[in-house]
Amino acid sequence: MGGSEPMSVMRQVTLIRHAQAHRALEDQSDFSRTLDAHGLAEIQLMAVHLRDQGLAPFHLLHSSAQRTSQTAQVLALTLGLTAGQVSAHEELYLADAQTLLHALQRTPDAIHHVALVGHNPGLSVLASRLDAQTDRDELPTAGVCALQFSLANWSELAFRQGRCVLSLTPASLSVQS
Fold first, then answer.
1. What's residue 133's pLDDT?
2. CB 68 within 8 Å of CB 62
3. Percent of all residues in the chain with a pLDDT value above 70, rounded to a whole number
4. What 3 state SS string does 156-175 have?
5. Mean pLDDT over residues 44-50, rounded?
6. Which of 43, 102, 145, 164 is deepest in the core (most CB within 10 A)?
7. Rounded distance, CA 3 to CA 16, Å?
8. pLDDT tens string 12-23
9. Is the pTM of this model over 0.85?
């Protein structure tokens, strides 16, 4: 049957809000805020759970802000990702949902699971808009929302196409422990 369309495959996007950070000092920019001790513990808890559940992405995108870079570093180390599987992007810093969607649409098609570490409000708005079923609550620090999509190519990723398969917060894991 000649020129057939590419087959759809199951693809997963895991959205992760950066962990809790120190408040900016008087002479410090928001961009350079670092994780505090609570934030480091939060993201370590989340990363171990993702690892133990076999939910490591093949690629991890993150904002180049200090707090998202630190969050991504903890995730990468715990999930066994190589440096080539992790990439920082300045345009993801405080990005809106549309900008985040465009970044995900540029994912190479050979990758079936990509994670994105970002900031609110854009990340929570993206999670809500990607989900076909419901509007989502705002992601707390270190919160995770994983959505699955049946797509031939990442460029087809659009709002209201996803199915939420995982929604986690550090508080929900602490209660399970």
1. 84
2. yes
3. 95
4. HCCCCCEEEEEEECHHHHHH
5. 97
6. 43
7. 38
8. 999 999 999 999
9. yes
Across 76-82, average pLDDT: 98
Residue for token pair 């990442």: 154
Q: Does domain 9-19+33-176 have CATH number 3.90.1150.10?
A: no
Q: 139, 120 in Cβ contact below 8 A? A: yes
Cα separation of 77 and 55, whole Å? 14
Taking phi over 0 as left and psi of -120 to 50 as alpha, with beta for the rest, 2 belongs to: left
Angle at CA of residue 132, ends 20 and 57, nearest 5°? 50
pLDDT tens-place string over residues 90-134: 999 999 999 999 999 999 999 999 999 999 999 999 999 999 887
Residues 6+ positions from 46 with CB-CB distance below 8 Å: 16, 75, 142, 144, 168, 170, 173
Q: Tokens 């870079």 map to which residue?
A: 69
Which tokens is 64 given?
A: 């180049």
